[in-house]
Amino acid sequence: MGGDHGPAVTVAAAVSFANREPDSEFILVGLESVIHAELKKNRASNHPRMTVVNATEVITMDDPVEIALRKKKDSSMRVAVNQVKEGLAQVCVSAGNTGALMAVSRYVLKTMQGVDRPAICGLLPNQKNRPTYMLDLGANVDCEPLHLHQFAIMGSALVSAVEGNKSKPTIGLLNVGEEDIKGNDVVKKTAQLLRADHEKGLLNFYGNVEGNDIFKGTTDIIVCDGFVGNVTLKAAEGLGRFFKTTLTSEFKSNPLNLLGAIIARGALKAISGKMNPSNYNGGCLLGLRGLVFKSHGGADKYSYEWAIQRAFDAVKNDVLTRISTSMAELMPIEPAVEAPAVASMQTNEPIAQKTA
Amino acid sequence: MGGDHGPAVTVAAAVSFANREPDSEFILVGLESVIHAELKKNRASNHPRMTVVNATEVITMDDPVEIALRKKKDSSMRVAVNQVKEGLAQVCVSAGNTGALMAVSRYVLKTMQGVDRPAICGLLPNQKNRPTYMLDLGANVDCEPLHLHQFAIMGSALVSAVEGNKSKPTIGLLNVGEEDIKGNDVVKKTAQLLRADHEKGLLNFYGNVEGNDIFKGTTDIIVCDGFVGNVTLKAAEGLGRFFKTTLTSEFKSNPLNLLGAIIARGALKAISGKMNPSNYNGGCLLGLRGLVFKSHGGADKYSYEWAIQRAFDAVKNDVLTRISTSMAELMPIEPAVEAPAVASMQTNEPIAQKTA
């Protein structure tokens, strides 16, 4: 039900994907009547690999997280994530309210051991013709160094899982300059944590990277807080669209340019393919005990289908198991904090001492 | 002396600009011998509108601000900003260390009344074929709501000064979503301040904008902290370069594409002109009692010349006076804090009471 266009986009994309991918099965969750109407429009009323599950409520794009979590317990989002929890679905895809999706997923699925805050990890194209993995893209607008540190570990685990373990993926920390003295306190402290892990051989920390390094492909992974990540991602999408518009309008500006465009249509198609931000839609909610993918809210059918594709590939590649394994290796072994805490409770110490 | 390439770029760009702009005069500040050698290379040893002023020290790209301010008092940067302070130059252009340039400029020139922190304001292209003014682009990596509020006022003053006062320029606050509930505390509180000014008719606050709005041209001005601004700007530049590389390589990939490119070379030239990030080089240090422009550190000759162009235009348009006038109108009238403080000092109250 989510996103700017709701089932008009999501159902259409699901039908299109199901038709070209015989291994896929869909559970469409939301207002039954609306979904059936969309299925009918897409000539898929009796599609053998489409099930509809009713959910009576919808989380809107401006519902606060509290409403999503506490009031709308029969929302399409909640019911969809529940399908994953209960093992009925292997992955959930949503174009809905990011904050709500993260909160609901976290509540229903729980986080992996050692993860305080899940993050959204997405792909961006780069000049080396392979993706730059970037996280967080918008789940956490305020981050402490420990969160960014965990994002680096999760990103490293994801890329190792997806791209194979030939060598540890390189990690860049997004900053305003390459030099160690640059940036705010959060970034400087994060760099210290990452450097320490690098020296231990746990992570392959490259150092600070700048905005342009995203598209240079300087590192496999770029770590940043969700505010910066979200703004940068949307700026890149906006510039991509601007580029496309300019390309089209200039080539149509006179007959000579149009002729050139027709002759070089192969080149234009290739450029459009490489630069179309829709092809990079679909971020993975990383750090949860289940797979959830977030599509851009403004996605059209074509773009939403890419998010489904990414989710489908993650399941096929057994990304969840692989990440869990990598995470277990990478996560710092927790000092046995819980055990003494329990012990101290048994000794009936006064509360004041426990917090000390 | 600054930037990744030093005088090889800055002197060459100055000579090229001086040759095409007879109204311009240059004072080249730095290591005399190096500058004279570059002038010779550029056949401008006895250029009638070029003076060389010696400065024995150079601030490097990774010098901390303290070194720039306290140790290197004869740095090219410091001496150049002094030229503005003393009225010998109308504007200073530098490709050097951003933090140092801001600190030195602030120390030497002082801030305008009501400005706590100067900001860097730059231009980005948008689909409406006019620039989006964006600030801060990297001077302040940590900002409080009051700083972002001042950036909005300064941006509004600048755009009114440059574009004419037909109507109040629109201001967008960069955020992760349009909705009021989105973003971190700093952004939410800033929005409250801007909304209050909008209601008073002082500013034309549009509301939250997202990364893609930069290139859509949703508002005339976009306000953000220097961390987000710097990363976004550099990401946009990186993506711009990626476009250019892809465009070139695809059109050269086979004879047919190349033929099309030759026929449509007018379109390609126009696209390249619109999308080339070099054409948008040159940010204005806003909020100072003098004009200072910051070029990208990695600028080449062509790109640095754009920064000089921008600085030259600012002087021609008498931007400093205009901003000062607008600022005086827009800045909240300061409550008379200083007067009572002086009075209390005269009564010899104990220090403990003064801080209470």
TrEMBL record, chains A, B:
Homodimer. Probably interacts with PlsY. One of its GO terms (biological process) is phospholipid biosynthetic process. NCBIfam families: plsX (TIGR00182). Keywords: Acyltransferase, Cytoplasm, Lipid biosynthesis, Lipid metabolism, Phospholipid biosynthesis, Phospholipid metabolism, Transferase. InterPro entries: FA_synthesis, Phospholipid_synth_PlsX-like. Gene3D superfamilies: Isopropylmalate Dehydrogenase. GO terms for cellular component: cytoplasm. Its EC number is 2.3.1.274. It comes from the Bacteria. GO terms for molecular function: phosphate:acyl-[acyl carrier protein] acyltransferase activity. Pathway: Lipid metabolism; phospholipid metabolism. It is an enzyme of class 2 (transferase). It comes from Undibacterium terreum. It is found in: Cytoplasm. This is Phosphate acyltransferase. Its main location: cytoplasm. Signal peptide: none annotated. Catalyzes the reversible formation of acyl-phosphate (acyl-PO(4)) from acyl-[acyl-carrier-protein] (acyl-ACP). This enzyme utilizes acyl-ACP as fatty acyl donor, but not acyl-CoA. Belongs to the PlsX family. It catalyses: a fatty acyl-[ACP] + phosphate = an acyl phosphate + holo-[ACP].
